[in-house]
Design brief:
The chain contains two helices and eight strands, in the order ααββββββββ. It is mainly β. The chain has a single domain, classed as Beta Barrel (Porin). An eight-stranded antiparallel β-barrel has the order 1-2-3-4-5-6-7-8. β2 and β3 form a beta hairpin. It is elongated, with a radius of gyration of 21 Å.
Length: 224
Amino acid sequence: MNSRKALTLLFSAFLYLVSADALAQEPIQQIPSGFMVEGLMSASVYTTAGDIMTGSVSLMNAAAVPSAVIGYRAPKFAIGLGIGFFRTSSITDEEDPASGDHTKTKIASTSMLFQPRFEISLFRSQKAAAEAYLALAFGAGFNVNKMDVEMPAGDDSDTDSGVVLGTHVGLGGRCFFGGGPFALGMEFGWSGLFLNMKDNEDDTTYWQNILGVYGALVGTFVFG
């Protein structure tokens, strides 16, 4: 499943979660508050700018969006520390028309990001079992870019590393099932990863940016 199909499926499920049947219920309960753990499985469509990762493909994760969040949930908002992992990769195989020799280039970029994340409740159903929310986050971490080149004359490799800044803004919706502490929801928004990299070969630095839109399946568990 490619990223575009994944985003379409996530958006369809999001529309169901915020449908009138899910939100229009009699007042019965309150959304739980307390220690919170969230998991996010995201997909992204993005563009890159920089010297190394141009033309890379998206995997089932999104730049600057955490894969796990640990924090506290209050009645109207939630705050937590998110940990995000982002990886892109590309492989090119070029043939020399004169000799027929192949040059294969493998490029991989891996980022680890730590970021405070805030969720603000925008709307709740009458039953308080479903809500729409705004998600905001900004954080910092590290990045490693590795390039391996396989040539008939011999192989070569280069590794760059640096500091990464990331942010994302999203709108989401979730439902707490059966009046319990577990909720399932969807989130869509914009994410940006800004990398200050050092080229180890010539000892220079450069900026590389990864910008795009994302969709995420979000699971939330609250220990009331």
